[in-house]
Amino acid sequence: MANKTYRVGIVGLSGITTGAPGPAPWPLRNEINNSHTYCLSLMDSVDIVGVCDLVPELLDGFLQKWGERWPNATRYTSHREMLQNEDLDILTVATGDDKHAAVAVDGVEAGIEGLFVEKPLATTVEDADRILAACEEHGVPISVGHTMRWLPQYHAVRDVIRSGVIGPLHNIIAVLGGPRAMLFRNGTHSIDGICFFAESDPVQVFARLEEGFEDWDEYKGDGGKLPRNDPGVSGFIMFRNGVRAYFSASKNTVTGSTYELAGPKGKVLFDRSSGLAEVLLTNESGGIGRHRLPQGEYETVSYVAAYKELIGLIENGGEGVSTGRDARKTVQIMTGFLKSQQAGGALVDVDA
Amino acid sequence: MSEQTYRAAIVGLGGIAIGRSRQEVAPPPFAREVLNRHVHTIHGLPNIELVAVCDIAPAAVDRFKDLWGKDLPETRTYADVGEMLSNEKLDIVGIATADHAHAAVTVEVAHSGVKGIFVEKPLATSLEDADSMIAACEANNVVLNVDHTRRYRPLVHTVRQAIRDGAIGEVGAAALHHFGPVATLFRNGTHFIDVMCFVIDSAPVKVSALLDEGFDDWDRYRGDGGRTRGAEPGAIGTIIFSNGVRASYTSTIHNSFYSTGMMVTGSEGNIEFEMNGDSARLTTGHVTSPLGTSVQTIVPNQYQIIGIPAGYRELMDVIENGVSSVSPAREARKTIQIMTGFLQSHQQGSRLIDVPA
């Protein structure tokens, strides 16, 4: 890697971008904290030169928490002004869920080299396509913050499926619970996980939103703030390769996220919260053997791995693990769920 | 239980009726395997005597004679149900005909003066059939119980009790998967959908579903009674219960891995079990708490009498003492509502529909 220092700008200063770690008990260091700024702080090839938010308190908060670590970070309330002044190499977009497209497209057109967009990529397929079109036109690599893709266990589970020990994948059941089990805000992680494991394109869906969201013929949320403004859901997803997946997000159940992945010769149970994954296979005596997958430990995971990967894409090209094309599938599915709800829960084609 | 001896008969002599539990291969010091077939059960239980069996197929009657002639030389065989009913003064009849033939036999038996009927699952293959069976039995004061066998095994009771005791808080969602060589909706899905109704403790209100490909003509049950493996579909579907719980069912005839289980999630945790397993896994606590989550294995007590023998024992107890049954036809009817609702939803493009009333 060249010794270049990448100039980073961040738009949207919520907890996911600016959260600071608590003290770690001796002799442990660097509590794992998945905020963008924290993870960038562990890297030496980046400099946060601009931060932007419409809310002045959040700009002040950034100064208090991170001013010492990032003395060059100029604060802005206009992302256009930041783009104009800072000659950014990398732009991170972490605004409200439905506001990503405008900021991302402005950034790409202003000449950034790499784009990081928080999840969900967008709340409409049109917005997703605007972002992807701009990136493709300007040759800018994009990574989307479906951060689980930078966790080792996701890959361990997918490697098991790819190995063929459970036979071709037939069914996926993904269950998300907790007060923030909101379709767009966090369901996008689970649905992206479904796509990650299914390795195919979504074709059709049928779904039922949480009661009270009957008017959601399109995304009508607040960008991801309040659970009451983003529905839970139960729905099925049909993939081109024949995989049929179920996804449920219920706010009235305990916080957690699990996957069950089944093929004709076995299945994988994966608890995303704990990282525990088990492979169940029929053993020689006709019973079911449970094999626990080892949890790999790596020095860079999560956003550190994501930003290192993005820099690698800028310098060397190639394909990232969480591309805009990947994330678009999740937008197709989520908006397909809305479409199905409007059709009385019927099986509908996702938008192409 | 009194010293009365019940006169019993079985109609429909397929494997579930006449197969022998392999008691002779039980290793010492064990006496025999659990009796999990009808004839063997009645032969093994006290206070009940198998006086007759009936099947329209002579070959099935011959198989019964081959298997049981030595042990049950007095048991008379019939090809005609009516003739058997008028000759035998029966108290209890087990019905194990083809799935879609339960109704006609049950109604005829109900009018013959019997006290109790133990019918194989699924109760029926249409709601009309189920209702005709229930009406005939209620009108004639006949107890009608259904062999959804898992209700006669300890695991689901232990799971349900844990949920009733608040182990996972308020129940919100459930996901059921059903895979294996015969993961078809009516023949075997009925077992697990029934367990779902039992554990969730509520009545189904709405459903939506998509059948396996190739079954678009299934505007009603079009199977062969459960005989042929590929003759009925698996399905994926959603069930919304009156207590607000959202449940899913995932099966397919294309996945032969033998695994069927369920996860029930509540406000304080979740409970997960394999339908044929010997324990359940209870996870409680919050990932955000300093202690994280805790996992316990719940192991049910063991009992001497489970399964089909427990079903016949209970039937006699209900007849004699009027106790309530764990698997009455009214409960099994919910499963028929769900399965036939699945067919209707599929016909309507998988729309979420009210279950047929």
CATH architecture of the largest domain in chain B: 2-Layer Sandwich
- Class per helix and strand makeup of chain B: alpha/beta
Question: How do the strands of the widest beta sheet of chain B line up side by side?
Answer: 14-13-12-11-7-10-9-8-15
Largest sheet of chain A: 9 strands, mixed
Question: How many helical elements of chain A?
Answer: 10
Rg over CA atoms of chain B: 21 Å
Large-scale geometry of chain A? globular
Topology order of chain B in helix (H) and strand (E) letters: EHHEHEHEHEHEHEHEEEEEEEHHE
CATH domain class name of the largest domain in chain B? Alpha Beta
**Quick one: how many beta strands of chain B?**
15
Instruction: Decide which structural class fits the backbone of chain A.
Output: alpha/beta
| Largest interface, Cβ cutoff 8 Å | A-B, 40 and 43 residues
Helix content of chain A: 25-40%
The CATH homologous superfamily of the largest domain in chain A is termed: Dihydrodipicolinate Reductase, domain 2
